[in-house]
Amino acid sequence: MADREQPAAGRQQAFRTLLRYARPYRFVFLTGFLCTFLAIGADLLQPWLVKYAIDDTLPRGEAAVRTLIWIGVSYALLSVVGFVFSFLQANLFQRAGQGVVAQLRKDLFRHITRQGMSFFDRHPIGSLVTNESSDTETINQFFTQVLLSLVRDGLSIVMIFALMFALDVRLALFCLILCPIIAGIAVVYRKFLRTAYQRSRAQLSRLIAFTAENLAGMGLIQAFHQQKEQSGRFQDQNDQYLRANLKEVRSTILFNRTFDVLGNVSVAFMVWLGGRAVLHREIEFGVLYAFISYVRQFFQPINQITQQWNTLQSTLVSLDRLWRLFSVQPEIRDPAPADALELRPETMKGRVDFDRIRFGYAEGRYVLEDVDLHIRPGEFIGIVGTTGAGKSSLVSLLLRFYDVSQGSVRIDGMDIRQIPQEQLHRAVGLVQQDPFLFSGTVLDNVRLFREEISRETVIEACREVGADGLISRLSHGYDTRLSERGSGLSAGERQLISFARVLVFQPKILVLDEATAHMDSYTERLIKQALDKASEGRTTLIIAHRLSTIRHADRILVMRDGRIVEQGTHGDLLRQDGYYAELQRHSGLLATPNRK
Ligand SMILES: Nc1ncnc2c1ncn2[C@@H]1O[C@H](COP(=O)(O)OP(=O)(O)OP(=O)(O)O)[C@@H](O)[C@H]1O
Ligand SMILES: [Mg+2]
Q1: In angstroms, what is the span from residue 225 Cα to ligand 2's centroid?
Q2: Which of these, 54, 260, 286, 293, is most buried using a 10 Å CB contact count?
């Protein structure tokens, strides 16, 4: 895992950031520590009480009965106190840990949504989901398990030793000899456990990635009857995970039982050594009893702390991963307030200029070269070209999904890098090739969850673009819940809903990437009408795959290999008898069908 090789400096900074998140909860943590102290105190006083009963009370004979009753009651009370404070302590730590993590999740989500599209080209969605869900959860474990254990078990060990020394120095010293032995075993096992743990984690993430990929590609799998093959591959991954998991569990059990055995051996030694001391009347029997109890209690916290080592490791890995994500500065940034220009919807004209631009997704490989394009306000532009010609790339620059490598894109004469993104996105409306719908109602999808836009406005817009017929056929009309990818609706139908969005938000510039999916002639006609309606009074750029969509365009651009090779009206281009005319002769479609 490359993840673990994080320079110490980066990690330190990451920890500092984490502490900043914990700061608002410092009083909760403090109270938690206090409760821990009280809970441990109550637990450790119990053997002492028994020792008092045996050594100081019983020898007094009949007269001691009342005191014994009181000791019994106190013992019970101590148990209750211990219970109450451990309960409080666990709750307080959970509350602080969960609070920190909720904030972390929120900030991470915001951070991710502020990134430009190139970020999502580099980070697969599956791994971002893991970051957002399980990595943040691991951070929670740091607070609720690692930190808690360090405090609780560390304190227990110190207090147990203090009590032992108070009881009998010689026996306490003997117990100290155990420490290096325990440390030795812990070190050996730690290495062993870590490897097992890492293997099982790595295998789990492989399994998750495999599952995610399969779910995303379900259409393909079913189309090619790959279910059996994929099940087989899944079974392999699953088996490996199972084996890795069992190995991890075995190591943990082995470690725990070794500690148990060591504990029992120590008790046996204590019985032998302490028993002799009792016989020689060097200590009293009650002291021996208390000692044996403490030796037993001593192994539990040590065991706990060692086990937290694993959790700490996974916390560090998660922390590194999150930190690396948080350190990614959005490539597409809003201008500094001093440089910002204002694009007001009321006064906006809708002029668009691409000034000798060059653009590539990767360094040095340009997909758009030397594109110089000037569009008048209200002009209707059609863009055609073969698959991979750079049509979608061109319009994505206008929305600033990416920034140009050279040249500039301007709206109403303003470089779009100087326009705050919120204003830019309000000015340019997009209807995607394969529109994405959010999980939510049809209503919410048209108004994009903006409650201030009334139901009537939405219904009116849907009527105007001709989507009302389709929506009224849905089970709950405008309140029908759509799921991810708008399942149940075709690409064309989803485009209709996107057109309604355009009418609701009234951008001055409209960008449409026409669906390439097969559409029945009825839906095609609806889209055409919706487009006519939505392009009224707007500068419109349409990537067209159907001749009918752009036959009447003011200007048609023909793209090939990242360049505009021809432009003019439909008639002009046919007269030129160039690439466009050739495309047109091919079955009436303007571009070869493309991949998604
Ligand atoms: N996110 C991306 N990362 C890297 N390369 C990309 C990305 N998107 C597109 N490309 C590449 O850029 C080139 C232009 O792609 P683009 O999507 O703009 O073509 P297009 O003209 O819209 O094609 P289509 O008609 O198939 O939609 C292609 O070579 C493509 O492989
Ligand atoms: Mg495209």
Answers
A1: 28
A2: 286
> What DSSP designation does 1 have?
-
Picking from 388, 360, 362, the residue whose alpha carbon sits closest to that of residue 561 is 388
Q: Which atom of ligand 1 is nearest to the CA of 396?
A: 18
Our answer on whether the CB atom of 389 is closer than 6 Å to any ligand 1 atom is yes
> Alpha-carbon torsion 278, 284, 287, 293, what sign?
positive
- Kindly report the protein residue whose alpha carbon is nearest to atom 13 of ligand 1: 388
352-585 classified as CATH 3.30.390.30: no
3 lines ligand 1 (CB under 6 A): no
Domain ranges for the chain, please list them: 2-326, 352-585
Give residue 3's pLDDT: 38
Residues in the chain: 596
- Residue 407 phi, psi dihedral angles, 5° rounding: 80, -165
Residue 407 Cβ inside 6 Å of ligand 1? The answer reads no
| pTM of the entire predicted model | 0.75
Residue 498: closest CA among 480, 512, 485:
512
Question: How much is the pLDDT for 222?
Answer: 83
359 vs 155: CA distance, rounded Å: 61
pLDDT for 121-176, tens place per residue?
Answer: 888 777 788 888 888 998 998 988 898 899 899 999 999 999 999 988 988 888 88
Choose one of 121, 391, 565 to mutate for the ligand 1 pocket test, by most ligand atoms within 8 angstroms of C-beta: 391
For the packed helices 491-505 and 455-464, what is the interaxial angle rounded to 10 degrees? 120
**What atom in ligand 1 is closest to the CA of residue 391?**
21
Angle formed at CA 314 by CA 109 and CA 327, multiple of 5 degrees:
40
Class at the top of the CATH hierarchy for domain 2-326:
mainly alpha
Q: What is the pLDDT of residue 9?
A: 63
Phi, psi of 227 (to 5 degrees): -55, -45
> Helix, strand or coil for residue 355?
strand
Ordered DSSP codes for 454-478: -HHHHHHHHHHTT-HHHHHTSTTGG
For the stretch 469-508, pLDDT in tens is: 888 888 888 998 887 555 578 888 888 888 898 889 889 9
375 burial via Cβ count (<10 Å: 0-12, 13-18, 19+): buried
Is residue 558 within 8 A of residue 579, CB to CB? The reply is: yes
How far is Cα 556 from Cα 218, in angstroms, rounded to an integer? Answer: 38
**The Cα angle at residue 302 between residues 299 and 306, in degrees rounded to 5:** 140
Residues 6+ apart with CB under 8 A from 510: 428, 429, 431, 502, 534, 535, 538, 539, 540, 541
CA 393 to ligand 1 center in whole angstroms: 6
Query: Residue 95, class by beta-carbon neighbours within 10 Å (0-12 exposed, 13-18 middle, 19+ buried)?
Result: middle
